[in-house]
Amino acid sequence: MITRPLDIASHLQPPPRSFDALFYINGGVLALFLMFFGSRFVLAPGVDLQLPEVPGAVRGAALTTAYVSVLRSGQIFTEEGLVTMAQLQAWLKTRAQQNKTPSLLIRADRDVPMHAVTDIAAAAYAAGFVHVQEAAQDPTAAKTARP
Questions:
Q1: Which ranges of the chain would DSSP assign to H, the alpha helix?
Q2: Which residues pair with 106 in a beta bridge?
Q3: What is the pTM of this model?
Q4: Do both 33 and 82 map to the same domain?
């Protein structure tokens, strides 16, 4: 860098000898920001779903190859993170092509409108899924399993 014509070098501040408190505060705020907002999976592992209760819900369960979580706010989560309905349809097509007999599990909160669940199930069948299941709890098993 040429500094001679404008004499910029004389106006520069010397580098600090040690880190001051502001450096550590900035580093801590940055670490907190990245910890809470740095991943698409911030909400997915801790999604608290209150599943609906259906008698005998465990009896018809089958092995699934993919899952979708739907929150009461309308957010849809896949294994890749938060998606829109258009992105979900493309994701379902790619997942259906990966397996011989694809099966989808829809984990929907108790307060999610039924039309949202049926829209996802219809998109899954249109994408080529053979089985679509909805997650539910058996009320008798849920009462006996709790301490």
A1: 21-37, 85-98, 114-127, 139-145
A2: 68, 134
A3: 0.56
A4: no
Query: What whole-number distance in Å separates Cα of residue 36 and Cα of residue 38?
Result: 6
How many whole angstroms separate alpha carbon 126 and alpha carbon 141?
Answer: 34
3-class secondary structure, 107 = strand
Residue showing tokens 């997915």: 44
At a CB cut-off of 8 Å and minimum separation 6, what does 44 contact? 69, 77, 81, 82
Pairing label, strands 103-108, 66-70: parallel
CB contact at 8 A, 98 and 60: no
Say if residue 13 is in the same domain as residue 79: no
Residue 47 lies in a domain: no
| Domain carrying residue 97 | 66-145
CATH number (domain holding residue 105): 3.30.420.270
Residue 75 and residue 129 share a domain? yes
pLDDT in tens, the chain (147 residues): 555 677 777 788 887 777 788 888 998 998 888 777 766 555 555 556 666 666 655 565 667 888 898 888 888 999 888 899 999 999 999 999 998 889 998 988 778 888 888 899 999 999 999 888 887 665 665 455 444
Residue 52: DSSP 8-state = P
